[in-house]
User: What shape does this take?
Amino acid sequence: MDVKVINPFVASITSVLPQLGFQNIVRKDIKLKSKKIKSSGVIMVIGIVGDRKGNVAYGIDMEGAKKIASIMMMGMPVNELDDMSKSALSELSNMLTANASINFSNDDINVDISVPTLMYGDDIEVNMNSEQIVSVGFDVDGVLFEINVALN
Amino acid sequence: MNKLRAIIVDDSSFSVALIKNILEKKNIEVVDTAMTVNDAVLIAKQHKPDLITMDVTLLDGDGIECTKLIRNEKVESKVIIISSMKDDEIIKMAKNAGVSGYLQKPIDEVEFHTLLDRLFAGDELYEVLRNHFKAAFEESFYTNIKRIIGGKVEIRSISEDLVLRESLGVSVAIGFNGRHSGRMLMDMKYETLECIFKKICLNENYTREDVLAFFSEIGNIIAGNGASLLNGLNRGLGIRVAPPTVFGGKDVMMSLGEFENESIEIGTKYGDIFLNIGFKKGDETWM
Assistant: This one.
């Protein structure tokens, strides 16, 4: 898979997150992974169909997820991952992927996105049905936010 | 669908007659027609129709410019370009001008009607989906599991609204795109999955990876069959299936409550299999 496939997602993070009240967004290295990823915390997967087909999985650890949900809810304290914060995180993954799909369309690649599937746990194994996954991490106000893209 | 009003902008009287005929079959009233950019802007302002069909080549300009001029007049009609030309560059320009759809001449009537359904029947289509998605996926789920496992297979509908559920061990998530978007989640114990795998694949030398790949495929079949049943009810739904993602792990929680969803469970001799399916009303954008 071409590593460039990550670019619309990187652009989406750097344009959407500041609008939601996040201040410091630092991109980390881009990595190629095998189709299986391990994750602890919250994982949100969105299906992509169109000129390219696949999935994107966003991963955040539990404390980070609460912190991000809290910032999205105007600083409301989040002690437990309740329905409201799960809804905020789902919406975040939806906004990021919708924005990435607009970035794709600027390169004449048209894709549609599904609703997110949100799972959480201590030791989640995710198999993205693609031989290779392009992965990039961001430090978002001290929280590690990971994006894994598997697109054919 | 309420009676919609349309204007046709095209410099060929033959095309105007053809488009009028197709629209009227869909119970859309053609209130006016124009052959030039000037006239088109005038009648669009005057009638503020629900729909404008727009040719690209007009006597005094082009349809994409014309769409922009109409938009400048704060006319919110949906615009479909109908032109013999279609290439990436024009499509991009059309999208930027605020066009909702693009059809190439010669016009395919079925394609035209499908586009109209998607543009105007969003609410009705969502109702079709709401009323039928559970039955469609129940049928696909039951038929496929029964076919694979055989023997006594018992279907149980779960009536309460589930917001959260602990995974039994392995789950497969599949996203749906189309006029409205959604996702399917199937979950069972790894041991249940392994028994089903062994029944189908008689090979004794298998890995966990093989079992999970098999799970992906079952998920894909159930999702694909369910989506096809729904698309058969109304082509306008245009449901497409994204590739499966398989999750595994201990104490994994599945969040189900972000949109309208239904749950079904099948009891088999190898253990229970859980299915959750949900859809969310989509916005009408480019078709």
About this structure: The domain at 4-120 of chain B is CATH 3.40.50.2300 (Rossmann fold). Helices of chain B lie at 13-25, 37-47, 63-72, 88-96, 109-120, 122-149, 190-200, 208-233.
